[in-house]
Every structure is written in C-alpha cells, then in structure tokens.
Amino acid sequence: MSQQGLKASADSDRSTDRPENQPGADVNADVKYTTVYTFVVYDHDKGTTIIYPRMATRQTIATMRGKVNEETAWVVDVADLDVMGFYSGEMKPSQPVSE
User: What is the pLDDT of residues 33-51, one digit of tens each?
Assistant: First the structure.
C-alpha cells in the first residue's frame, strides 16, 4: 500500500473523531444521575486489599484498578461527583441516628 493510500484513510477517520458526528454524542448532555459504588484496591504499603474510603463511579474505580462491590450501588446526582469521579455528596445514613 502506498503512503498516499494510508494518508487518505487516516483523513477519512478524522471526520468520525468529532463528537458531533458520532451517534449518541449528546446522550450525556441530559444525564442528571449516576451510580457510585464502594470498592476495594490493593494497598502496596500494607500488602493487602483494602476498602477504599470513598465511593466512586465505575470508570474511576477501573482507573484505580479497583474491584467494584455491586451490593453498594447508590444512584446519586452527578453534581455530587468531584472532577475525578468520586462521590462528594452527603452520606445519608439508612436509619435515623439516635442521640
């Protein structure tokens, strides 16, 4: 194959890289809620797995190479996520706290 043939296919791929040309590109425009989970990660200092102290989205957990705890799923407002994908909203207890 010639260099010119490779260049032409690369240029044609660029038109599909733009978000406005991809199907479903505006799907996230109206997202108001997402699911966060507790998860475990490997603690190199302790040499064992630990439960991470913050809840996060699946994408954030995957970035940290953690394992999702499916039983802890919470649906939360996306405004309660920080820029890294961690839940930063108020932790509401499942039962009233007695004083």
Answer: 999 999 999 999 999 999 9
Of 20, 33, 42, nearest to 78 by C-alpha is: 33
Structural domain spans, the chain? 31-81
Average pLDDT (48-77) is 96
DSSP string, the chain: --HHHHHHHHHHHHHHHSGGGSTTTTGGGG--EEEEEEEEEEETTTTEEEE-SS-B-HHHHHHTT-EEEEEEEEEEEGGGB-TTSBB-S----SSPPP-
**CB neighbourhood size of 37 (10 A):** 21
